[in-house]
Amino acid sequence: MNKALFLDRDGIINIDYGHVHKIEDFKFTDFIFDFCKKYYDEGYMLIVVTNQAGIGKKLYTEEDFIILNKWMEEQFIKHGINLTKVYYCPHTPQDMCDCRKPKPGMFLKAIEEFDIDPNSSVAIGDKMSDLEAANKAGIKTLIFKKTRYEEYPVDFEYIKL
Prior knowledge:
Blueprint: E1 4-7, H1 32-41, E2 45-51, H2 53-56, H3 62-78, E3 85-89, H4 105-113, E4 122-125, H5 128-136, E5 141-144, E6 159-160
Parallel strand pairs: 1-2, 1-4, 2-3, 4-5, 5-6
């Protein structure tokens, strides 16, 4: 079985200005490349799991997201890091889908597709819903990176970065 580092995008990989969908608005966080390189060099697959409700809200298109995503992946490659895959949920909260965090759909899909051992894997997010989804998928090592979103009580342990 494989091990993976699951990464939220907005707030973890890039600064979250709200519905970031253009290359010129995409600013990487200060820590992301060093953080990911450490796990990548230790044999972790790097998998992005991101809610992208802006698609469902028609603020940008799926094509806009894919163009930005391809550019983002190229920037990781320039730092010697390959992202295994990017999973995204284009739905709004009102759609009640199974993939939108805090539901674990994207995590479970990745675990199945890449034969990932959740017990050996790590997830990092800046919203408690990121950690809730990872926890529901069986991932035990959870990291919370404080941004503009607040912590709230949950019934599992996590590390603060």
